[in-house]
User: What shape does this take?
Amino acid sequence: MSLESIIQTALDLAAAAYDAFFVGVLGLPDQRDIWITTSGNPCIFCRHMAQLSQRVNVPVGHPFPVPNYSILVYMNAQSITLIEPARAHDNCQCARVTVPVP
Ligand SMILES: [Zn+2]
Assistant: This one.
């Protein structure tokens, strides 16, 4: 099994668990927040945050599910997703954007 497929499986499981929790508690929202990368070469953490946020319904203003990258050091990894703009690390060009739920 390739590293990419292991990561994809982990993302699928995290997305399913996240949706089961928040949609189960709050119901399906009218709007949700997504993580947008604007850098031409975002880091792997931010690429996965953006990918994961496309797959789950993150309620507006709620935390994103954060992949656990123990090999990388991010300041306040558990709280970075609550701030605006979404600055995960130095030189991060990401933004939190609210969009309608399709
Ligand atoms: Zn970023």
Remarks:
- The two ends are 33 Å apart (CA to CA).
